[in-house]
Amino acid sequence: MHLIRSPTLTFALIFTIFSTVLMIATLTVIIHEHSKNYLQLLVVCPPLNCVFLFLFSVTWIERRFRLSYIPFLCLLILTISCLTLTIISSLFFSLSIILYLNFIYYCLLTILFLSIIITTIVVYSYGSLFIHRYRNMMTLEQQNSEISKDVEHLSIDKLLLKSTNNNDLILYMSKLPGRRIRHDIRNIEDDLNQIQVHTIITLNESKELSFMNMTHKNIYNMDIYSMHIKRANIQHIIYPIRDRFIPKSISDYIQFIYSIIINANRFNHNHILVHCMGGMGRTGMTVVCLELVHEYIMKTTDEQEEKETLIERFCHYPFLLENYCRVCQAILNVRKARRGTIHNPLQIMFVHEFYARLTSSTYMRQIKKNFELHERLLANDHHELH
Q: Which of 186, 213, 227, 310 is the 20 to 30 Å CA partner of 381?
């Protein structure tokens, strides 16, 4: 039942209802007019479109294994199909006003699906282009000379999350500590001494750190970066997400966020730094989700059973309805704490899908069960080692 809460699946359901009604109305026109065969595509294609849209709705946030390209293929098929139906309906305006409705409906859908495809391509590609653009081509001596100059303190913003047990959680946001890209050569030790947190969550992929090396020598990678953090007696957690994109699996991501909050409360590690390369997109998305899960865990069992509002079940991007949508409120909270965070439409939609599952008691029971099972396995392994 949790899927019914999903904004994407809610849209797919509405799409199915409208397409079915329009298909039935078009069928009566075709039967009455004895029209040509290719006009029958207005009856044949809509059910297939519904199938592909539901498939897209389920897989765009679960792209593990061989599912990576299925959402994009579904979008491509939907765009081509809607464009074809737009052209066909435009050729038969004289038959009935129903054909006008078909034209308007499929024209709008073509624009919508094409916009999603373009946004996805731009966002997915720009991450790689950004890494190459800022690749560090300086020698080690040149980097060290840059470090010796006056370097500004690492810009760190914080978001305070109140707790019922007076053990408030403080989330810090920053760019990559010790970042070494053009015109921004930092010292990792100085940045870590400034941070003073219990846990650092790194959202970078390993290749992002490798691009900060010089031309030939591989002196900077995730292992070395993690070693510096552990030397500073800071817990280091790595959850790689592609730059300017979203996690591959929403179920894994919810499990990850849930475990962070539980362990922060359990071990009193309530100062957490979240960062990616620039500390904006992936960082903002993760901090929004941490705020939502923290609020969920602080609630009583009865409060956790509260349902989404009607507005929260529908896609209302690009509008942020702070007074009607808890997710929009969390996004604005993070933006107030750190300007410029989470403006990527894919990341904003992902957070809404995240919240849809968070408010599902069935879904969260499974998340809790998986977490407890993982804890028991770790305890058994620890017992066997000793």
A: 227
